[in-house]
Amino acid sequence: MDLKFTAEDQKFREEAREWLNANVFTERRPHGGDAMREYDLAWQKCQYDGGWAGVSWPEEYGGMGLGLTRQLIWYEEYARANAPDNHLCFVGLNHGGPTIIAHGDADQKREHLRPILSGEKIWCQGFSEPNAGSDLASLKTRAYVDGDELVITGSKIWTSHGHLSDMQELLVRTDPEAPKHKGISWVIFDMNTPGLDLRPIEIMTAPNHTHFVQCFYDEARVPLKNVVGGLNNGWSVAMSTLGFERGTAQIKDQIRYAFLVEEMIVRARDRYGAAFLDGDEFGARLAQLRADMAAARAMTYMVVSRAQHDVSPAMASLMRAMVGQVQQRVRRLAFDIIGADGLENPEDDDWVYFYLRTYATTIAAGTSQIQRNIIGERVLGLPRS
Amino acid sequence: MDLLPSDDQQQIVDTIKDFLRNEAPVDRLREFGAIGNPDALLWPQLGDLGFFALGLPEDRGGVGLGAAEEMLAFQQFGYHLVSPGVFGLVLGARIAAFAGEDALRDELLGGGLKVGLANSRGAAGAADEYHLFEAEDAAWVLLVSEEGSALYPRDAFAEIVRVNSTDSVLVLERAKLSGAPRVAISAETDNIHDRALMLMGAYAVGMSEGARDLAVDYSKVREQFGKPIGAFQSIKHICADMAIRSEAALCQASFAALVMDEGSPDTPFHATASKMVACETAVRNAADCIQVHGAFGFTAEANVHHYLKRAHVADMMWGSLREQRRRILTFPTPA
Questions:
Q1: On the CB side of B322, how many CA atoms lie within 13 Å of its CA?
Q2: By residue range, what is the domain housing residue A172?
Q3: Total domains present in chain A
Q4: Surface of A (318-337) touching B: CB under 8 A
Q5: Closest Cα to residue B248, out of B316, B290, B201?
Q6: Architecture of the domain defined by B7-186
Q7: Tell me: the pLDDT tens digits for B250-296?
Q8: Which of A240, A254, A262, B106 is the most buried (most CB within 10 A)?
Q9: pLDDT tens-digit map of B8-20
Q10: Does residue A263 sit in the same domain as residue A369?
Q11: Is the dihedral of CA A111, A112, A114, A118 positive or negative?
Q12: Residue in B1, B251, B258 closest to A5 by CB
């Protein structure tokens, strides 16, 4: 057991801090639309030009090729610098890109990886379907081979930022006769392909906030060479990308939330006076969150530690489940602290927006119920449900 | 940076684990009788193995390891519900060591004496009123406070009255403090209070894990509707929640111990956070464990109730969750 970072790690931390302080975008990130797309791509390009994009990506694809400890340091400094989360780049950086790195062929790597890092292309996810959510492997979007093309018909849903995206990681059923996990393929899909139709889906944060789209594919044609990891091998390919989502990319969120709790303490003191600490339930809830955020951060350190010891990645589900709950409690308390002002939802106040936004944290990337199944079965060894 | 035990540390864990599995299975508490426990018989053996001296510097008569190793040991003590008298020995020896009372220190490190714990009754009593745990036949009583900590002779306490202990395998008394400490150190000399909170966090982590394992093991073998109850999501998710909470508590306990070993000014923050998170986890895991056991969990024939009652002792010791919540807001933002 050891909390110390090496001298080289410390030097890296200082360099990261220096670069971030000099370059971080300070303008407020738009909540939607083309303005958000431009903002996220510009910030990604800024990181790329500075040599700081893709901390975990191999150097041959333009990344920094850093191990988990350096990733932890980078994300800590990223959060400390209050650098914006470019969510639109998330799928490309943490799913699509890493999947192509792990399973793609030379052409796929050459064509698709650098534009993700350099802030040219936005990727989205096409996994869930109206009737395939938690039971993802039952997906029905059909793709048949026609010469050197795949012909895709069906529908995907809960595609975050699909209307702002260039590319999609798409799961389709290429062998309807095979057992459900065996007949799926992972496909690189260009969002400009004829036969694709998008239906925007507003989310609950405020009227006209489009976050998701539903995608309809009507005989949409994709080159067969866009299949990654082999035809009908998409399930195991997809599972490796979900692993990335449950891993290090969460680190900066936790640090950000720890800062938010500190900010809430200040804001609550300003608003209600120092005495609120003693009697008021806000004091008790803030105190508990202070302790729980410390534990969440320690869990992050443990995830990094475990990965170095090759412990089962299922253990990371423990952190994800905990962090999702705590984030919801933080945002709920932030909302409660602003009191009646929370009933106003101005465009420039993040506290209401993010309170409502946080209801997604126990749903996205595997609901907390699915997480508990994974923990029960893969960590605790309980029989399958 | 690595929160997991090193090979050397794991060896210590395995040794304590093996020892306690053989010498202190939780069944001992049921077999011993209604009141009390046989754990004082373990002290000389644990002392011989060096487990009370792990975190004490070599030049003060210890093994010369750190808070991390102590944390790992107390996690195992909690897992096996070892009498909280073990806090009296380890922290008492530390007080004696830093006070220059080498003979007393060595006797305590060897497990040749018993040290009870004095805990303020808080709002339930006057300022001089204490609960004494495991102190009935102890020569010494440990009193921990933020300003400093001390060993008192038992006769420094007056009006000692034996009361029924909710955790019935512990001996509990009420008493008034009337005499002076015999061996005392200030928090500036060595902060026993921070260490006590950190170690209680570790102890509560062990209890949380013990209750988790008991529930998981039971739900694998108990069958209803033709299958193990652990196959039902209603039970599986309770067990998963126990695992999530235990993990959070373990990680914070490890972090707190390492911060202490670094001598960081954030030590009181992290020690307090560790006690808060772990003691609440211990209570909730014990409660869930009772639920998973059904009616059996409500009986004295199952071991579950021991975890619940000990968890409440842990929570109350050196300031309950309510008091720790007040304290943690007084610390500056940690690094």
A1: 8
A2: 123-232
A3: 3
A4: 318-319, 321-322
A5: B201
A6: Orthogonal Bundle (1.10)
A7: 999 999 999 999 999 999 999 999 999 999 999 999 999 999 999 99
A8: A254
A9: 999 999 999 999 9
A10: yes
A11: positive
A12: B1
| Alpha carbons within 13 A on the beta-carbon side of B268 | 19
Contact A291 B240 (CB under 8 A): no
Task: Decide if B216 and A321 are in contact by the 8 Å CB cutoff.
Answer: no
A103 in a structural domain: no
Q: Is CATH 1.20.140.10 correct for B192-328?
A: yes
ipTM of the complex as predicted: 0.95
Buried b (16+ CB within 10 A) or exposed e, A312-346: ebbbbbbbbbbbbbbbbbbbebbbebbeeeeeeee
Residues A263-271 have a mean pLDDT of 87
CB distance from A290 to chain B under 8 Å? yes
Active site residue ranges of A: 245
Cβ(A365)–Cβ(A242) below 8 Å: yes
Q: Are residues A255 and A375 in the same domain?
A: yes
Of A9, A265, A383, the CB nearest to B329: A265
Q: How many residue contacts between A and B have a Cβ separation below 8 Å? A: 160
Asked whether the beta carbons of residue B228 and residue A292 sit closer than 8 angstroms, the reply is: no
**Partner residue opposite B230 with nearest CB, options A371, A379, A382:** A382
Taking the whole predicted model, whether its pTM rises above 0.90 is answered as yes
Residues A250 and A360 in one domain: yes
Q: Please name the residue that has the structure tokens 């960081």.
A: B264
Asked whether residue A100 is assigned to any structural domain, the reply reads: no
Q: Which pLDDT band, with edges at 50, 70 and 90, does B196 fall under?
A: very high
* Contact between chains at B3 and A1 (C-beta distance less than 8 A): yes
Mean pLDDT of B170-182: 97
pLDDT one-digit tens code per residue, A100-152: 999 999 999 999 999 999 999 999 999 999 999 999 999 999 999 999 999 99
Chain A residues inside the 8 Å CB shell of B269: 294
DSSP state of A375: I
**pLDDT higher for A69 or A120?**
A120
